[in-house]
Amino acid sequence: MTGKVQKDDFILLYLSPGKKWLVRAKEKGSLHTHVGYLQFDLVIGKTYGSQLTTSLGRVLWLLKPTIEDFVMKGERRTQVVYPKDMGLIVVKTGVSPGSTVIEIGTGSGAMTTLLANLVRPSGRVYSYEMRSEFIEIAKRNLERAGLLDFVTLNLKDAREGLDVENADAAVIDVGDPWNVISPVWRALKGGAVISAITPTANQAEKLVIEMEKTFVDVQTVEILMRGLEARFGKTRPSSRMIGHTAYLTFGRKVFQESMLAND
Amino acid sequence: MTGKVQKDDFILLYLSPGKKWLVRAKEKGSLHTHVGYLQFDLVIGKTYGSQLTTSLGRVLWLLKPTIEDFVMKGERRTQVVYPKDMGLIVVKTGVSPGSTVIEIGTGSGAMTTLLANLVRPSGRVYSYEMRSEFIEIAKRNLERAGLLDFVTLNLKDAREGLDVENADAAVIDVGDPWNVISPVWRALKGGAVISAITPTANQAEKLVIEMEKTFVDVQTVEILMRGLEARFGKTRPSSRMIGHTAYLTFGRKVFQESMLAND
Amino acid sequence: MTGKVQKDDFILLYLSPGKKWLVRAKEKGSLHTHVGYLQFDLVIGKTYGSQLTTSLGRVLWLLKPTIEDFVMKGERRTQVVYPKDMGLIVVKTGVSPGSTVIEIGTGSGAMTTLLANLVRPSGRVYSYEMRSEFIEIAKRNLERAGLLDFVTLNLKDAREGLDVENADAAVIDVGDPWNVISPVWRALKGGAVISAITPTANQAEKLVIEMEKTFVDVQTVEILMRGLEARFGKTRPSSRMIGHTAYLTFGRKVFQESMLAND
Amino acid sequence: MTGKVQKDDFILLYLSPGKKWLVRAKEKGSLHTHVGYLQFDLVIGKTYGSQLTTSLGRVLWLLKPTIEDFVMKGERRTQVVYPKDMGLIVVKTGVSPGSTVIEIGTGSGAMTTLLANLVRPSGRVYSYEMRSEFIEIAKRNLERAGLLDFVTLNLKDAREGLDVENADAAVIDVGDPWNVISPVWRALKGGAVISAITPTANQAEKLVIEMEKTFVDVQTVEILMRGLEARFGKTRPSSRMIGHTAYLTFGRKVFQESMLAND
């Protein structure tokens, strides 16, 4: 890697924490923003981290998109999982190079993108989604992030069973997670970690009751993130914050005595 | 992988969310707990996820340790970074297979273990630590998790400069992070993400002022995690929680105009 | 008021934020603590705010108990409402001098004590409790705080109806608040504010559904309090905090059209 | 009190939790809203809690304003203290009927209004403000709430000393609270509770250092309030919340040995 922008690279143009553009560096054309436009031919060959100037004289910083940028700035029609929540899921499930991961509820493919980036090149994400339009959106988002090769997208109702065996971990993000606990359980290795994302307390309650039948170490948590505005002599927490995204429930697959009679 | 315990595997014996043992499955000997002892020879050959019974008739679940288990149950003499914080660092820095990562402040090697697990097999963690006793602890913890091959441990004061170039990301966990911003900046690729962990608001303030000279998208946040006790008809948040671990500061390396005169 | 301790005054002896004693200044006897004992005859006549020295040479500060001290350091057999929650209840219900206040669930009388202190001398708290042993505890706690004269304690099941009319506000702290909404509604003035304390999300849900039939501006919130350890150059939030006490639900009594046919 | 609206009463017209109007019930005229207008002559004589209908057929509920309504819906040019914070201040300072309370930083008089309502009729709030335009706003707000008689508004720099003695409590809401600690201390009774409101961690730090010289039980906290959207089978915390208003610092006045030589 040269550290310089090549034709067709995805680049991130940074104006401020709240204003960033994730675009493809084409040979022609330009990016139009409220602080002026920027011609793409000026970008190709530039070093990542350098500064660019718009037609109105404003500085944009040329950055290489991180996986978080791809995850958060993809095309989407559903609420995506937040980085604060994704992070804990990654640490607790242990998803890493070589992992076989099940995802129930592809949605726009945000979580899928993050997972695929972590399991590559030898692992794989098997993602299930019932709505074909979401499969298409997820496909485009994964392609853009260069990660489609590490994902199998299944247009299928997970409640009817999965086509995976011995998976290392599962991430569930559907409205009725309790209905897929059984097929997901069957697709996992013994001891594998499952995680599920539910917005309401009622869902978490129903889910935990179902999970406690075949999983141990079942825990539900919520993650709150608050900004700190660190400024000389005036440091204070941010005035506004996200109050709630979802509850996260985790558990580890176990076998009841009867299931292992011949072990 | 057979899904069965082999001699010398690390295993996790689970009694309850607050009581788990991470031990090596030896041919001889036994684990002594307050709920009875367990002979290791009964464990070898068992399927992960199955249940074991102690001498006092209590059930222990046989689990395969996740990376979180290795991270949180390693030998330690310092406060380790919490999963809630580690997770956000992983998502925001984009550490993943193949990454070259700098760590300043190895400590007991908890964060090092998590990072090494994510960059393997082709990436590498370059970790710096000034206290030799911590290098030794971290080495043992990494060895136990089978990840030492992916880490270079440096007994060196990072303020004097690093021996890395073109790194993809950096994680800083020392008391005076502002003093290593300059050497870390030099070791990173343009646009690379830096993250730093500071317990006090004063540290965060001082750090941000230093970082804003050569990084953009500088943000400080804190992560709060609260349990939800999900029980039928009685679901409520946990009575107690951790109030604070550390502030997390992130930024992306940029070049000032003058630094790139010949670009 | 002289600002000096008189015989039989309740005094607060302060050692540290976590170690305070609320005792009566008697002519004889002494307070025995882990930092030595203190003879009461040395205390009488002393100015509030002055320092005392125990037999072991440790300083105790002589303070006049605040209403919070009486509330939090009363005899108790149940969980009392926390100051963070009490405060919001006071502000939202508008309990103040002259108010007629209904309390359902006297418990140990902690909230009762706070309310009585605010409505005196012309207002009154009508408190209902089904368990006679709690009536006795509450009575002792109110007596100690000098507030029993402003409270009517009723040993009665509030679900069977109240003996109050035109009350200005109500505070409900029982396990099944939905069952007393109707009798409490009847006892309130139009527009009066009701507040209820429920530990679980399920209770809050059930309560809100019931309240929305005859109250408007129905809102449920939770209050979190976190300490800030402010120290020179080392300011940081407290490591531990209470994660949850209870949800607080508020509403204002209205009349449905049919109820006011002859208005 | 009749429970019916009288001419010139302040009334609260309630449409939804976020849309309420605090207006005076005049004999003529009307309230114009985005859901139609309402003629005031229809309101006089109506029972509080009853429903009204706008010209567009929408229901508005007729409520008696609580003290919180006066506090939050007064004329204002500054950020007012939030109910969550006011509540804790009330509980910890013990402000109640008969109290003599000092307020430094009247601002728009929101906190002043709450305090005056609690100390009446025999207590008094002595409030200091350096900017005459705020004195005028506060005066109008207090008059509207019918509480001006219980407040002395001082157009004066509190750093130059106060005209109060033996006060029971103090509330400080200025940018440099450390500069008024000494005059406030002198105006308080021994053992009296002080509270101060500071948005930044730096202010809290500086304040605590100053307070610890002449106060004990010094504690700084922050209060977070989050809504719970309680709905049948779909109960979840609110998506958005206020992340920060201010840190609250409390302490109790003590005398150092030397100050009480002749006690």
Describe this structure in words.
The structure is a homotetramer of 263-residue chains. With 263 residues, the first copy, chain A, is an alpha/beta fold. Chain A folds into two domains: 10-65, Vcp-like ATPase, Chain A, domain 2 (Roll), CATH 3.10.330; 69-260, Vaccinia Virus protein VP39 (Rossmann fold), CATH 3.40.50.150. Chain A has six helices and 15 strands. The first copy, chain A, has an eight-stranded mixed sheet, with helices on both faces. Chain A has a four-stranded antiparallel sheet with strand order 2-1-6-5, with no helix packed on it. The N and C termini of chain A lie far apart (50 Å). Chains in contact: A-B, A-C, A-D, B-C, B-D, C-D. The interface between A and B is large, with 80 and 80 residues.
